[in-house]
Amino acid sequence: MRPAGWLPLALLSVGIVSAFQSTGLSPTGGRVVGAVGCTVVLPGPDHIDTTGFVRWEYKQNENDTELTVVLYYVASRELDILPEYKDRVVFSMSNWSLGLKLQLADRGLYRLRRQEEEKSGKWIQLEVIEPLSKPKLFRNSSLAGSTIEMVCNVTVGRVDSYQWRKDHKPLPKYGHYQLSRNNSVLLIVNATQADSGSYLCKVTNEVSENETSLELTINDASAVVSNGVILGVAVITAVVILVIDGNLYSE
Fold it and tell me: Backbone dihedral region of 101: left (phi > 0), alpha (psi from -120 to 50 degrees) or beta?
């Protein structure tokens, strides 16, 4: 729930830059990372050396029972694919690699197993990550002397890092600027008009990055009060005139 009085200031939004094409990606340490909607390729074995069948197996967690995603009979070149994978799997009959267009639910463990391998075969961990949505910036104040809190909010995807800049430069490294909540919140303590400028929040994860900036203008609190008093007096004066004029016409 957003606190009352917070203002969305998502200005100058920059689009997502994502690794949506991961074809040919090889596992590093048994791990492959891909973005939702992109295609990853899980590599086949170094040597094609069976005439029986091979299968690609999947399980979500280590203790789960494995499912056969693809079953390929080498001699007859017959191919069976699990129905939920049928429209987004490409199996190479030449090198036994598995191409997969990713959904979030595909994360888990995959392995290629030959007929003669009972329960052996190296498992590959597939991480499927959502690309980040455009962040939105919210601030609670723009008054001089106040503590201004700016929140960088992302609604889709897991953010690995937040980076802030002011006027295209890193934030000054002193106590006037403070970061909290894994750097998603910027505090400007005892703000002055020198803090006016362009603030940018950049978010990143393993498959995407995105950023949003806003122009912040610090207003002098006394000027705001003075303008409010003047406006209030003007409104009261106008109401009095209308009442007097109404009374005159009613007589």
Answer: beta
- Express each pLDDT in 84-123 by its tens digit: 999 999 999 999 999 999 999 999 999 999 888 876 778 9
Residues 6+ apart with CB under 8 A from 104: 36, 128, 130
Paired sense of beta strands 89-91 and 98-101, if any: antiparallel
* Ordered strands of the 31-35 beta sheet: 31-35, 124-129, 108-114, 53-59, 67-73, 78-81
Structure tokens at 165: 């800049």
Q: What's the pLDDT at 1? A: 42
CA dist., res. 36 & res. 105, Å (int): 9
Say what the pLDDT of residue 223 is: 55
For the whole model, what pTM was predicted?
A: 0.71
Please report the beta strands in the chain, taking only residues with DSSP state E, as ranges in sequence order.
7-8, 11-18, 21-22, 31-35, 39-42, 53-59, 67-73, 78-81, 89-91, 98-101, 108-114, 124-129, 136-139, 148-153, 161-166, 169-170, 177-180, 185-188, 197-204, 208-216
Residue 211 phi/psi, 5-degree rounding, is: -155, 155
Tokens of 82: 């699990």
167-179 tens-digit pLDDT: 999 998 777 899 9
Average pLDDT over residues 19-28: 37
Question: Tokens 């830059």 identify what position?
Answer: 17
* Residues, the chain: 251
Torsion angles phi and psi, residue 137, rounded to 5:
-110, 135
